Amino acid sequence: MKWTQVGVAALCGFCGLAQADWNVKNGQLSIVARGTTVETKDFDDVDNVYLPAQSTIDLSFETHDGKKGFRAHQTVAVLSDESTGLQYSFPAGNVKPNGKAKIAIAQKNVPIALQAAKELTLSLVVGSFDDNKPFRTELTKRVIVEQTGTHIKPNRLAAKDEIYHLFRQDPSRVPAPIALFFAGGAIALLVLILGFWSTTGNLNALSIALQGSPSGHIGLLLSLFAYEVSFFRYFRGTSIFDTLATFAIITPFALFSGSRALSEVKKRRDEGRF
């Protein structure tokens, strides 16, 4: 709902002044329904006003600055509900330089919250930004607008239910495609190594290799075994981060022992004892 403009509220604050330089003359209020004028009254004769659906309140008047007809900076009509303090302004759409002005208040433009009120007050406010004192007059306190809708209190003005955040638990098992990919890679690597050893290895040289570099060969085998255990634990549910941390610990030992083992093998090959 659009509330009264700040300028209108400022003008209304000066209404308690004893006398206003601005004033209104030749004012008339008309009820127009579907293009036909139903009733017309002078401002002094307005008692009660009923605004049915598809109808308009037309206000025609002249604004004077105390001397002659003159256009004010702000000329608005205000509908207000004194019981709730709600109000809505209708600015003059076209004010001529000689002060002749018209304001149309259509029933469809009156907010639902004001339509629901029993009685509304219709006021006219005129003012400017110079030294002239503003003017306000209450045309009537008995304006009834036909209610064509139901006023529903907006949700933004109501208390909301307390929000409880429920976070999804971390998965307890690794997704099957990822687990099968890593497990398949580990098994394929193991089969490849065993096949290479069975075709190119010399089991008779095992004792010589262990004597030449026990830490290198044993460390390399233990590192490979540790990799397999890590993959198995990952498949059983260990997180990827824990698995990577384990690899970070195993890899330096695997590189060190593997280099020692390969150095020992190269030495025997150079000596022709491979």
From TrEMBL:
Keywords: Endoplasmic reticulum, Membrane, Signal, Transmembrane, Transmembrane helix. This is Ribophorin II C-terminal domain-containing protein. It is a multi-pass membrane protein. It comes from the Eukaryota. Residues 1-20 form the signal peptide. The lineage of its organism: Eukaryota, Fungi, Dikarya, Ascomycota, Saccharomycotina. GO terms for cellular component: oligosaccharyltransferase complex. Residues 167-269 form the Ribophorin II C-terminal domain. It is found in: Endoplasmic reticulum membrane. It holds the Pfam family Ribophorin_II_C. The chain crosses the membrane at residues 178-197, 241-263. The keyword Iron-sulfur does not apply. The keyword Transmembrane applies. Its main location: endoplasmic reticulum. GO terms for biological process: protein N-linked glycosylation.
